[in-house]
Structures are given as structure tokens and as C-alpha cells.
Design brief:
alpha/beta, 6-stranded mixed β-sheet, 6 helices, 27% helix, disordered C terminus
């Protein structure tokens, strides 16, 4: 059974009184546990809307969205909200609360459903799994972009989701940093058994995904994978061995 299944999903937004903007046109997609799927699209082509539909945050005009075989829109609003809080993780490049260390930021969404001790334990474990344990007591302003991406992933996986939705997280990263982040996501999905649906704007960010699809004109089409970059040998968590021929791959400083 697929973790996430979209069948014939259509979505449009109104423009004025008489016009609509089509965003998704009969999109069909299935993702299994342990699988990573990258959706490649330019800006304003519906990447975030697709993720919102997958999370049950945006109701499609037509079509079906199923989580582990159950129709999301057959759930009550409360159950959908709990699902997003407990079993679907959302990762995006947002600025967290600037007045607290990253460990507290990662733990913060868990306070409502777990005791503080357990929330902090889960947050600590998540930071360790992504190789960002050294960021635990640092504040947002002191982190590099790739470290911020790691912290965002840690927050997404701290609740141990079955589906991780990643929204254009690599947008501001360099080549070696993109490779590190995308390979980490694929490794986590394989080892921990959750599914990953990741939107990207750069074809170079798709090399480590199990599958790649292109979203354009509202249509989602599966496309051949680009070869994964071979400049780096990366061991996770947190160990990067830069390729000797490309100094851009050295992100250890």
C-alpha cells in the first residue's frame, strides 16, 4: 500500500470574477514507504500547491488524495490536522523563532503532544540523525544556509513521520550543499522507512532521488533521472569528504 496516492487531482485558483488559474491538471502520483520522489518545476508552477494538497491542507477541485489507502477528505478537519501534526512532516526554508536555540526550535512543535522531556529527547535525536548536533545551542543568525536546512529537516523528522514533504529547501544552496542535503534525505527515507516528496527548482537537486517528476502547465510527468554527482563521497551523519577536483564541494567550513 502506498503511503501517499494522488489520483486525477485538479486544482485551480480564481482570478477576478470570471477567470481561474489552473495549477494542477489531473495529477496522479503514488509514493511508497522508504521512497524519495523529487518534483522539478520552475517558480509559480504549482510545487507548493502540490505539497499542500498532499498534506491535506488544500482541497483539490477534483480527484482523490489518499494517505495509507484512506481518503484524506473523508476525514474530519480535526483528524486531518492531527495527521499533519503526527504523521506528516513539513520541511521548508522558514525563519524560526530567533530568540531561542535550535534545539528548542526543533522541539517546539512537539510540546503540544509530548512532555517537554520527551520533546527535547526527540529533538536531540533528530539533530544527531541529520548531523547537526553542533547546532543545538546555536541561534538562527549564526548558522550557514546548509545548517539551517539541516535544522529544518530535523524539525520535520522529530515527530517520526510516515511522509515528509520538503518544499524547495535547496533553493539558496550551492552545488555541494545541495548534494549533501538531497543525499541525506534519501538516506533517511531508506533507513527510517518514511516517504519523501520533495519540490525543487534546480535539476541538479534531483540526482539522489529514487524518482523524478516534472511539473509544468499543471501536468506532472515522470522523467528520467540525472546521474548523481560524483564529486563528493558523503558519509552521514555529518561527514563530508570533498572531491579533490572541485573546491565548490567543500562545505566543511
Amino acid at each position: 500500500m502506498s503511503v501517499l496516492s494522488l489520483t486525477g487531482v485538479c486544482l485551480s485558483f480564481p482570478r477576478g470574477r470570471r477567470h481561474v488559474i489552473p495549477v494542477l491538471a489531473s495529477v496522479t502520483l503514488q509514493i511508497d514507504a522508504g521512497e524519495t520522489v523529487s518534483v522539478l518545476a520552475q517558480r509559480a508552477q504549482g510545487k507548493t500547491s502540490l505539497l499542500r494538497v498532499a498534506a491535506g491542507m488544500e482541497r483539490p477541485d477534483r480527484g482523490q488524495v489518499c494517505f495509507e489507502g484512506e481518503d484524506l477528505w473523508g476525514f474530519s478537519e480535526r483528524r486531518r490536522s492531527r495527521l499533519l501534526g503526527d504523521q506528516i512532516g513539513w520541511v521548508r526554508p522558514v525563519v524560526p523563532d530567533l530568540d531561542m536555540p535550535m534545539l528548542t526550535n526543533v522541539a517546539l512543535p512537539l510540546f503540544a503532544t509530548h512532555g517537554k522531556s520527551e520533546a527535547y529527547a526527540r529533538a536531540t535525536g533528530a539533530l544527531e540523525r541529520v548531523g547537526a548536533q553542533e547546532c543545538a545551542q546555536q541561534f538562527w543568525g549564526s548558522l550557514a544556509d546548509w545548517e539551517r536546512a539541516l535544522v529544518a529537516i530535523a524539525q520535520g523528522i522529530a515527530r517520526e513521520p510516515k511522509l515528509l514533504l520538503v518544499d524547495d529547501l535547496t533553493l539558496s544552496l550551492g552545488l555541494g550543499e545541495i548534494e549533501r542535503i538531497t543525499r541525506l534525505l534519501d538516506t533517511l527515507a531508506t533507513e527510517q522507512g518514511f516517504a519523501v516528496l520533495m519540490s525543487v527548482s534546480d535539476a541538479g537537486a534531483t540526482g539522489w532521488s529514487g524518482r523524478v517528476a516534472t511539473l509544468a502547465g499543471g501536468e506532472l510527468l515522470e522523467t528520467p533521472k540525472l546521474p548523481a554527482q560524483q564529486g563528493n563521497i558523503i558519509d552521514f551523519p555529518g561527514v563530508v569528504k570533498p572531491g579533490a577536483n572541485d573546491p565548490r564541494h567543500d562545505i566543511s567550513t
